[in-house]
Design a protein that fits this description.
Rossmann fold; 5 domains; seven-stranded mixed β-sheet; seven-stranded parallel β-sheet; globular
Length: about 750
């Protein structure tokens, strides 16, 4: 296999010489082993030996020793370095000492939960059960009647199915010694902000049952892990990050997709690697591109249809399990996946990872790269799309490799999120301003002042008589809509409420596992989308407008061009959609829509352009509206280079005249109600953002503007108007000042 990998790389370079910008070889590294700590009991040593483990890596040894000293730890080492051995070995060792102790394992996905159950059972010591949304009610009753040593679950079930019924879990919680939270780097943004509250609620209930467990967190490599762990859980952590695990050799090919369809190029590379006998994963950054690639690959070669599959969020659980099973046993040779397959699910050995665009963060990039070459050589092909971030890295491939890992951003104090969770907590057990301050800090007083709570007669406790847990989705804004095929009445998928008007409006083309559907209707009361099969050669995209009201100003950079940060209210209205031919993107027609508007409060930074600059540009007959629109796009495009986020986590809108500022104004805001801290950090690092955005536009080889600099894939006005020359002119002003 080693020879095949190297030969494959050589053939790709030879065949596509004009596309390959650079090949970087990451050298193989031998593993360095250490003896198991003396406190590991002999029966466990025997079981480990039977699984081929007689010695451990440095981070495994250090993690076990820190746990033995009673510390809360966060382990941040590369993908495939054996982090799970730390908690599994230590928990099983403690169970050998005391068979009554309990542990709670929390994973971000059900697939990972299933995967880790198999690993845990290999030890043959702990009694363990999964308790999540897929667990039948009769099994749940059996679990509650006789709690095992280890419960494996996810944050969603903890939120809705365990904490509201904590009295039934008293026998488990009162003996809980360990809480394991795996893949914590996934808990960012809206999901992480919600989970941070779920963990506070868990700690609060454990405190009620006089339980004070150790927390064991595991993550991909992130910046400032101890700070993030403390924000997520609310207790102090020590960091374990020195790994001595082996690394297989990897070849990273930097591929410039300009001058030709990047979809066609990705499909050709996928087919090349599969035909060469290499198991391959093609990562995309959106559900739509995953489906389009699946559809186009099968169209180009019917013989490959049963050898590949798409994989993304929104598929039904049984569909995802079947794909994982086929990958593991080699029935599938290729998978086209979103971030849903970034995590450490065991899907067998993969040889080739194709990155269809930069994943947005160094964290995600190396998680995806880590899926291949775990025990033998691997190949990574980074296909740079027409995107500002992608083009930045294709011009700076060494920075792609050496780039520092980002901070993981959550906002525990998000007013909307905190209010909802504190209400949930008050239902689970009445709140005390004195006792619960250690879990919530100042936000507890603010929430109780702002929201309506019932009080006990002595006025010491606050509570809510109605459970609202099921109204809150941890992973997105709003509720989940089910998608049904009108022909057979079966559910084929799911979509989040904040996406439904943009992706599943009446007339929209919806893609699912390589099949096209047209949306017939949305039932807002039943949270249901009805679709039917569609065989026509077109796709759809929406148009919308935005209105922004400034609610308050928190911070200000008071220079010639003012930059401010504060709270705004965003109103979005989807007004129409376009049908475009798949082959050449030509417009077939524009169709009006009558849909409800979306309104939410969030955090934003904004740039106020002085009148004299506007006059100067107009005197020179420059396109001012196209210029500020382009500045907005270019800054949003490179935001993920500076702040941990996806460009779809943030929104923006530019006004040639804004009623409140009385000036031309560019807004860049967090795309979630209440804000999650992205633009707050962006305001603090605005000088760096301006510098990189200016460089990106200035050095782009296009004349009029392109997706590599100012054209955005998510623009509600379909990138009209845009002006590159005016954008550069405006940036030159900003650079002088900032």
């Amino acid at each position: 296999m080693r020879q095949n990998i190297k030969k494959f790389v050589e053939e790709i370079i030879k065949k596509y010489r004009e596309k390959v910008v650079k090949v970087i070889e990451i050298k193989e590294r031998e593993g360095k082993f250490y003896p198991l700590p003396n406190f590991i009991l002999q029966p466990l040593k025997e079981r480990l030996k039977n699984n081929g483990i007689e010695k451990v890596y440095l981070h495994q040894k250090e993690g076990l020793e820190r746990l033995n000293q009673g510390e809360n730890i966060i382990v941040t080492t590369p993908t495939g370095s054996g982090k799970s051995l730390i908690y599994n070995a230590f928990v099983n060792n403690e169970i050998l000492k005391n068979p009554d102790i309990k542990s709670l394992y929390i994973f971000p996905t059900k697939a990972l939960t299933q995967d880790q159950l198999k690993t845990l059972k290999e030890f043959g010591i702990a009694k363990c059960e999964i308790y999540d949304g897929d667990t039948p009610e009769d099994i749940r009753k059996k679990v509650r009647a006789n709690f095992p040593n280890v419960i494996l679950t996810n944050p969603d079930m903890l939120h809705t199915g365990i904490l509201p019924f904590h009295d039934k879990w008293r026998p488990f919680f009162s003996k809980l010694r360990f809480v394991v939270i795996d893949e914590v780097h996934t808990y960012r943004g809206i999901f992480g902000s919600n989970v941070s509250h779920v963990i506070r609620r868990l700690r609060r209930i454990l405190n009620l049952y006089q339980s004070n467990p150790q927390f064991i967190l595991l993550s991909a490599t992130i910046n400032r892990p101890e700070k993030f762990a403390e924000e997520l859980v609310g207790v102090k952590f020590s960091v374990v990050n020195e790994s001595s695990s082996p690394l297989s050799k990897k070849y990273i090919i930097f591929w410039d997709s300009q001058f030709g369809s990047y979809y066609t190029q990705a499909i050709n590379l996928l087919k090349e690697s599969i035909n060469y006998g290499l198991s391959t994963i093609l990562f995309t950054n959106s559900r739509k591109s995953a489906e389009l690639l699946q559809l186009s690959t099968v169209k180009s070669d019917r013989k490959i249809e049963n050898l590949i599959s798409s994989y993304r969020a929104g598929y039904l659980p049984e569909e995802r399990r079947e794909i994982e099973r086929k990958l593991f046993f080699g029935d599938l040779k290729g998978v086209i996946a979103t971030s849903a397959l970034e995590l450490g699910i065991d899907v067998g050995y993969l040889d080739v990872c194709i990155l269809f665009g930069y994943p947005g963060t160094a964290i995600s990039t190396w998680q995806r790269i880590g899926r291949v070459g775990r025990k033998r050589e691997g190949v990574v092909i980074f296909i740079a799309l027409e995107d500002a971030l992608d083009q930045y890295f294709i011009r700076n491939p060494d920075e792609f490799i050496k780039r520092q890992f980002e901070d993981v951003i959550i906002n525990f104090e998000n007013e909307i999120i905190s209010s909802t969770h504190i209400k949930c907590a008050s239902y689970e057990y009445p709140l005390s301003l004195k006792d619960d301050k250690k879990f919530y800090g100042d936000i507890l007083n603010k929430t109780i002042e702002r929201e309506k709570f019932s009080k006990t007669k002595d006025g010491r406790y606050f509570y809510s008589g109605r459970p609202i847990h099921w109204d809150l989705n941890l992973r997105s804004v709003g509720e989940i809509y089910s998608i049904f095929d009108i022909d057979d009445g079966k559910q084929i998928g799911e979509i989040e409420e904040d996406k439904v008007l943009f992706e599943c409006h009446p007339g929209a083309i919806y893609l699912h596992k390589g099949k096209k559907y047209e949306v017939i209707s949305i039932n807002f009361e039943k949270k249901m989308v009805v679709v039917e099969r569609n065989y026509d050669d077109y796709y759809t995209q929406t148009n919308w407008w935005e209105k922004i009201d400034i609610l308050n100003i928190d911070k200000e950079k008071d220079k010639e061009i003012k930059i401010k940060f504060g709270e705004i209210e965003v109103t979005k209205q989807v007004i129409s959609y376009e049908k475009r031919r798949e082959k050449d993107k030509t417009l077939i027609g524009t169709y009006m829509l009558n849909l409800p508007s979306q309104k939410f409060k969030t955090q934003s930074l904004w740039i106020e352009i002085p009148d004299q600059i506007v006059y100067e540009l107009k005197e020179n007959r420059m396109d001012f509206s196209g210029g500020i629109h382009a500045v907005e796009h270019s800054m949003i495009g490179i935001f993920p280079l500076v702040i941990t986020c996806d460009r779809f986590d943030i929104g923006g809108y530019s006004f040639t005249f804004h009623q409140q500022t009385q000036k031309a104004t560019i807004f860049i805001y967090d795309g979630y109600p209440g804000g999650i801290g992205i633009t707050k950090l962006g305001f603090e690092r605005i000088e760096e953002i301006i510098k990189i955005a200016y460089s990106s536009v200035l050095n782009c080889k296009c004349e009029m503007g392109c997706p590599s600099c100012i054209v955005s894939p998510k623009c509600g006005n379909n990138n009209r108007p845009l002006c590159k020359s005016t954008c550069i002119y405006l940036f030159s002003y900003l650079i002088k000042i900032y």
